[in-house]
């Protein structure tokens, strides 16, 4: 199989005003890019998923235990779930009769749930999971080419409901426990730390826990047969040791070990630039499938077999996915319109890694990227690209150029202090473009705010500032 491109060039104009200041107000339907996904009726506290998967016939049986808090009085609870049947449901232990509405499950509350009230939901569900058809291709649960029945989950941006009921918003973040039973001889990988593994006569059970908080689209699950490689890295910001684990098909062990070998050095370098690593563990999975691009997931990045060749051809993408742990996973989006805060930052991380290992400087790469951008259509506002253009290459590369322009304006010391401060201020939370502009402008607002507005909201490409000697080139 070949996964759909996450950077497809989808042309067109996106007409929108400068984003409003950061706010706790619920955005309107018109403001949200994917308004049919997620609800602002509640905030999720935790997901506890008990799953059984049969790779031979491709069936999934699940029971989801969800804890949440009502944000307003709720006569019913809405969750996103696609392609799978609901067998039974309870709210606070009371059985309720679920209703389906397209890819929604609606659970009438036994009595209205008051604003600010914690509640629990339990849902039994199952069927044959599969990907959703979207404007970005098929997204969500899918099977790999592993002859033993391997699976992968690539949920960005809308695929989480293909395997568990959730509040599918990028800013609704929660704790996750994922327990999966598979046939004997199969392995399971998921976010966070492996809490337990037990084997019975014909099955094995794997339990992972991640305190998060984590958005549903970043939750991941992989089954199959893997070889493993463990490692440790020093968090240079705190001195603590971060445990890592990579998994890959055994026949690709040599290539994968070589191509992923510099992850510890990357993590140490990035903690020096961005601040403490935000989670308890990290690793990568190489799946037995060809992927157009790696997949961003929290604590476990995913690469296709085509991304390992034993020559580190795709090492910039290894850096890209690691940077997402700070920018995209720890500091998350308020809405998908702000995706440049994920992808521009991670792309700039690629350039910083090149600079760190003594290859091309970030300035050299930025100017090459600028020349490429200058030849392309000048019809995109990257801080509001439109829902069908969130994976446009220009969101990635112009976003990275915007950060480099800011670096040239502030100088290295102020620039990297600003990046560390951005992560520190929003760690474990969500943010939007207006908040970043305000944050970056605190030291030199008369220079940084006009610069960022031009890069992020003007369609025409601004010039890159010339190096002034206060930024490494």
In order across it, which strands form the biggest sheet?
5-4-8-2-1-12-15-14
CATH class of the largest domain: Mainly Beta
Q: What name does the CATH topology of the largest domain carry?
A: Immunoglobulin-like
Q: What is the CA-atom radius of gyration, in angstroms?
A: 22 Å
Number of strands: 22
Helix count from the secondary structure assignment: 9
**Coarse shape:** globular
Poorly predicted tracts of residues: 1-23
Proper CATH architecture of the largest domain: Sandwich
Helix content: 10-25%
Between the first and last Cα atoms, what is the distance in angstroms? 41 Å
The proportion of residues in beta strands is 25-35%
CATH superfamily heading of the largest domain: tricorn interacting facor f3 domain
Major sheet summary line: 8 strands, mixed
Structurally, how many domains make up the residues? 2
Multimerization status: single chain
**How does the helix and strand content classify structurally?**
alpha+beta
Mean pLDDT: 92
Give a short synopsis of this structure.
The chain is built from 9 helices and 22 strands. With 473 residues, it is of the alpha+beta class.
């Amino acid at each position: 199989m070949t996964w759909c491109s996450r950077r497809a060039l989808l042309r067109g104009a996106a007409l929108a005003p400068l984003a409003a200041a950061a706010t706790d107000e619920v955005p309107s339907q018109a403001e949200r890019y994917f308004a049919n996904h997620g609800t602002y009726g509640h905030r999720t506290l935790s997901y506890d998923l008990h799953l059984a998967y049969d790779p031979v016939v491709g069936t999934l049986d699940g029971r989801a235990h969800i804890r949440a808090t009502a944000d307003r009085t709720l006569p019913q609870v809405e969750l996103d779930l696609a392609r799978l049947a609901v067998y039974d449901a309870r709210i606070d232990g009371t059985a309720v009769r679920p209703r389906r509405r397209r890819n929604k499950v609606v659970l009438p509350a036994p009595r209205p749930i008051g604003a600010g009230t914690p509640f629990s939901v339990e849902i039994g569900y199952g069927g044959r999971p599969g990907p959703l058809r979207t404007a970005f291709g098929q997204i969500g649960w899918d099977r790999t080419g592993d002859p033993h029945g391997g699976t992968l989950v690539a949920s960005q941006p809308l695929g989480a409901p293909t395997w568990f009921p959730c509040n599918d918003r990028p800013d609704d973040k929660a704790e996750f426990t994922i327990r999966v039973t598979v046939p004997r001889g199969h392995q399971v990988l998921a976010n966070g730390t492996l809490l337990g593994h037990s084997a019975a006569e014909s099955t094995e059970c794997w339990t992972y826990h991640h305190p998060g908080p984590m958005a549903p689209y970043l939750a991941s699950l992989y089954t199959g047969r893997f070889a493993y490689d463990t490692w440790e890295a020093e968090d240079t910001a705190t001195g603590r040791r971060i445990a890592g684990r990579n998994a890959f098909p055994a026949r690709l062990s040599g290539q994968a070990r070589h191509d992923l070998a510099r992850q510890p050095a990357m993590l140490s370098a990035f903690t020096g630039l961005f601040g403490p690593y935000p989670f308890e563990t990290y690793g990568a999975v190489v799946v037995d499938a060809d992927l157009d691009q790696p997949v961003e997931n929290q604590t476990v990045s995913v690469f296709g077999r085509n991304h390992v060749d034993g020559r580190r051809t795709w090492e910039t993408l290894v850096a890209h996915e690691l940077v997402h742990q700070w920018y995209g996973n720890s500091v998350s989006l308020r809405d998908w319109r702000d995706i440049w805060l994920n992808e521009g930052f991670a792309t700039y991380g690629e350039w910083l890694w090149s600079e760190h290992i003594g290859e091309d400087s970030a300035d050299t790469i930025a100017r090459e990227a600028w020349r490429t951008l200058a030849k392309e259509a000048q019809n995109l506002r990257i801080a509001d690209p439109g829902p069908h253009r969130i994976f446009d290459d220009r969101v990635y590369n112009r976003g990275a150029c915007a950060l480099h322009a800011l670096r040239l304006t502030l100088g290295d010391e102020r620039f990297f202090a600003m990046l560390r401060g951005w992560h520190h201020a929003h760690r474990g939370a969500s943010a939007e473009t207006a908040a970043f502009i305000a944050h970056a402008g605190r030291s030199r607002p008369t220079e940084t705010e006009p610069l960022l507005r031009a890069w992020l909201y003007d369609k025409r490409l601004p010039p890159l500032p010339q190096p002034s000697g206060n930024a490494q080139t």
